[in-house]
Amino acid sequence: MATPTLVESVKNGIVGTIKGTGEIINAVTDTVSDVLANTLKSTGKVGGAATEAAADVARGVIQGTSQVGGDLGSAAKGMVVGVLRGTGEVGSEALTTISSSVSSLVRETASVGGNVGTTAKNAVEGTIQAAKDVGVNAGDAVATAVAGAVRAAGDVGTSTTEAVTGIASGVIRGTSQVGGELGTAARNAVLGVLRGAKDVSAGAFSAVSDTAEAVVKETAEVGGNLGQAAKNAVEGAIQGARELGLDVTEAASAAATGAVKAAGRVSQSATEEVTKAVTGVVAGVKVVVQSPFKKA
Questions:
Q1: pTM attached to this predicted model
Q2: Distance from the CA of 119 to the CA of which of 97, 105, 244, 284 falls in 20 to 30 A?
Q3: Burial of 81 (0-12, 13-18, 19+ CB in 10 A)
Q4: pLDDT one-digit tens code per residue, 272-292
C-alpha cells in the first residue's frame, strides 16, 4: 500500500521546484535525494529501505512531473540518481534499489499514459550516471536496470521491440555521455534484456536480436567501434543464455543477426566490419548470421 506522506512529499517538492526553476532533472534528483535522506533519518530505517519506498517515490515523481506538464523521461533519469544519492546504498543493495526504482517508474508512467519506452531509456541513462556517482559497478547496474525495465514494460503491455529498442539506445547514449566503454555497455544491454524477458523462449531471442540491432545503430550514431559493440552484444547473449539455460547457439545467432542488420543500414564497410566481428567462434560458441535476417 502506498505511503501518502512520502508520495505527497516527493510530488509537492517536485512541483514547487520545477515551477520555480523550470528545470526537471535536477529538480527531481534534488527533491528525491532530500526527501529520502530525511525520511530514512527520521524513521531510522537503513539498508533496503529505498527498495521498499521505490514505488511511492516513483508515484510522487511521475504525478508531480505530470502535474506541471514536465517531461517524464527526464524525471525518470533524475529519480534514479536521486534515490541512490539519498540512500547512499552501494553493492547488492544498490542494485536491488535500481531494479525496483526503474520498474516502478515504468509502471507509474504507464498508469498516466506516458511513453514507457522513453521513460525506460532515461531511467537507464540515470542509472549509468548514478553508478558513477556512488561507486556502483556500472556494468552490473546497467544489466540490472535493463532487466527491471524490460520486465515492467512487459507487465504493462508495452511491445518488447519498442521497449528494448529505446532501452538499448539509452544504454549506449548514456555510456557515451559519461565516457564509458561502449562494448561493455552493449554486452550488458543484451544481458539485461535476456534476464528481463518475460517469455523465456523464442520471444527472448527476438528481444536479443532487437537489442543488438539497436545497440549497433546507436553506437554508429555516437561514433563508436561497431565491431567491438557487435561482438560484445553477442557475448552478452551467450552469457545470458547460459544463465537462463537457453540455447546459446540460438541466442548468439540472434544477436549476431540483429547486429549485422543494423550495420547494413550504416554502410557496406560497417557491414563487413560487424560481420567479421560476430562470425566464427565467440566466447566458445560457433556463431552463424541468419539470412535474410530472420529473428531466432
A1: 0.85
A2: 244
A3: buried
A4: 999 999 999 999 999 999 875
